[in-house]
From TrEMBL:
Keyword Repeat: yes
A GO molecular-function descriptor: RNA binding
InterPro entries per UniProt: DYW_dom, E_motif, PPR_At4g14850-like_plant, PPR_rpt, TPR-like_helical_dom_sf
Pfam families the UniProt entry points to: DYW_deaminase, E_motif, PPR, PPR_2
Name of protein: DYW domain-containing protein
């Protein structure tokens, strides 16, 4: 990696007059391309980091352009070029994100009486993936089929990746299933493609197929599959993968370690996440951000901010790191700290705030009851607020029962994002909790008129390596009678300790007794009761819910944790709640 020596050898080649030699020219271009590669900062690696990395349009360093300029200069001065020469220049353009130049160069190959080969195609396919241009990608696929390149490992993997990034996973799977021979590269591509498109179960199924077919997973395999465990909160499977990673010596790989930190944090085991983080030799930006966001989601705001301060001494915080730190402030109610961070990000680090930063601060102000301040903050954003940003304030209006501001915010939301089902549901709930049943009915009718249907509340729990899912009022589970009996017994014990049902969140115009029955059959209660009757005494109960936990279920779970003497970890749509000895880690601030 001695650039100066390389330049000297290049000068010697010119003086000796051997720069006209085809193979020498190709070797020179190859050398400059390799110098270009080692200057690149690694921003993201596979799907494991996608939750934390917002990758902006690539900014090129001066060194990158010097090396690429050298490649192009050698190429232009070569009197004779073969396909290797053309491929080297194309790869250089693609590497630098200069897609139009890369495509133009591919077209120029035909004018020089040469034919693109498999390397040309595998170099150019990522361009169509980047631009989500599936029609042009299909043209390359057709060319590969006509010229017999479709069975080439690199072409196949590039095609799988291209279709996946264009949201055409079915086509990715077809390419994969038609391959005469599979290798680790093709397995990694299809697993990553499924996980990146949210097909987590399919990704895990393919991973098991890969192991059954006796293929040894690589570091990229684990980086790709870990987010599936994190999303599905399958802690047991994640622990099994961790064991495999350790036994095969992958645990020192910074990308895999970061994925493990993310997985454990999202599966509710924040202590294990921190243990892995502390054992990393040199954490990168993704590792720091994963750990800070983990603390944020578990409500450990002070630990998150301490870690953020420590990170600043090691690496320069980026866009996503500030999102994590502001999220921690939001979940911890740290208004002053958040505003300082927000200003520091702009003034000291030159980072322009994005929607995620604005949403975090607006959410924080709303949770803290500073509704008018939040409204003003959103109104003064330097970019147009999205429905997501206004939704955070609308949700706060519901919590603080401010109907007047809610209507004002709702109006803006419906203008910006008329298909936002969450806005209709929130407005309907706000009216219902205020007893304005006519207005609530209008919202539900508007939803029906637009063909919208509310997502049912669902909770799931992993017991004996199997996921058990429950919806509100669900009587279909084979253990339903035992679950119902356990809930009745616990309710009696809870009431003896002073628990009183809070029916404020039952947003139906029904009798009080019916409201009691509705509350007691919420999905999270069914999942918790099932966990209690299905696991040994003292076992931690881990439940995931697809919506926000309601106020009454939150209170009930505190009582249950005290009565049964267990820790109950609940992950809802916005954060984790650790219930133990009658208390919750959120401090009732969520």
């Amino acid at each position: 990696m001695d650039f100066k020596l390389g330049e000297s050898v290049h000068g010697c080649i010119i003086r000796l007059g051997v720069d006209v030699d085809l193979y020498t020219g190709n070797a020179l271009m190859n050398m400059y391309c390799k110098f270009q590669s080692i200057t690149e900062d690694v921003v993201s690696f596979g799907n494991a980091h996608e939750v934390f990395e917002k990758i902006p349009e690539r900014k090129f360093g001066n060194a990158d352009m010097v090396y690429l300029g050298s490649v192009k200069k050698v190429f232009d001065m070569m009197p004779h070029k073969d396909i290797v020469s053309w491929n080297t220049v194309i790869a250089g353009y693609v590497h630098n994100g200069m897609c139009e130049e890369a495509l133009r160069t591919v077209r120029d190959i035909g004018k020089s009486n040469l034919m693109p080969d498999s390397f040309t195609l595998s170099s150019i396919l990522p361009v169509f993936a980047e631009y989500v241009d599936v029609s042009r990608g299909k043209e390359i696929h057709g060319y590969a089929l006509r010229h017999g390149f479709d069975s080439d490992d690199f072409i196949a993997s590039s095609l799988i990746d291209m279709y996946a990034k264009c949201n055409r996973v079915d086509d990715s799977l077809r390419v994969f299933r038609l391959l005469p021979q599979l290798d680790v590269i093709s397995w990694n591509s299809i697993i990553a493609g499924c996980v990146q498109n949210g097909l987590f179960d399919e990704g895990l199924k393919l991973f098991r197929e890969m192991l059954t077919a006796k293929f040894r997973p690589s570091s990229l395999t684990f980086s790709s599959i870990m987010p599936a465990c994190a999303h599905l909160t399958t802690l047991h499977l994640g622990e099994q993968l961790h064991g495999y990673i350790t036994r095969n010596g992958f645990d020192k790989n910074v990308f895999i370690a970061s994925a493990l930190v993310d997985m454990y944090a999202k599966c509710g085991n924040i202590r294990m996440a921190r243990s892995i983080f502390d054992n990393m030799d040199s954490p990168d930006m993704v590792s720091w951000t994963a750990m800070i966001m983990g603390y944020a989601l578990h409500g450990h705001a002070n630990e998150a901010l301490l870690l953020f301060q420590k990170m600043k001494m090691e690496v320069r915080p980026n866009y996503v790191a500030f999102v994590a730190a502001l999220t921690a402030c939001s979940h911890g109610g740290l208004v002053d700290e958040a505003l300082k961070l927000f200003n520091c990000m702009i003034e000291d680090y030159g980072i322009s705030p994005g929607l995620e930063h604005y949403a975090a601060v607006a959410d924080l102000l709303g949770r803290a009851g500073k509704l008018e301040e939040a409204y003003e903050f959103i109104s003064k954003m330097h970019i147009r607020p999205t429905g997501c940003v206004w939704s955070t304030l609308l949700s706060a209006c519901r919590v603080h029962k401010n109907i007047e501001l809610a209507e004002k915010v709702g109006e803006k939301l419906f203008q910006i994002d008329p298909e936002n089902i969450g806005a209709y549901i929130l407005m309907s709930n706000i009216y219902s909790s205020a007893g304005k049943w006519k207005e609530a009915a209008k919202m539900r009718m508007a939803m029906k008129g637009r063909g919208m249907t509310k997502k049912p509340a669902c909770s799931w729990i992993e017991v004996d390596n199997k996921i058990h899912a429950f919806v509100a009022g669900d009587k279909s589970h084979p253990y339903y009678d035992r679950i119902n009996e356990a809930l009745k017994v616990m309710l009696e014990q809870m009431e003896r300790k002073g628990y009183v049902l809070n029916t404020d969140d039952v947003l139906h115009d029904v009798e009080e007794e019916q409201k009691r029955n509705l509350l007691c059959s919420h999905s999270e209660r069914l999942a918790i009761a099932f966990g209690i009757i299905s696991t040994p005494s003292g076992t931690t109960i881990r439940v995931t819910k697809n919506l926000r936990v309601c106020v009454d279920c939150h209170t009930a779970t505190k009582y249950i944790s005290e009565i049964v003497g267990r820790e109950i970890i609940m992950r809802d749509v916005s954060r984790f709640h650790h219930f133990k000895d009658g208390k919750c880690s959120c401090g009732d601030y969520w």
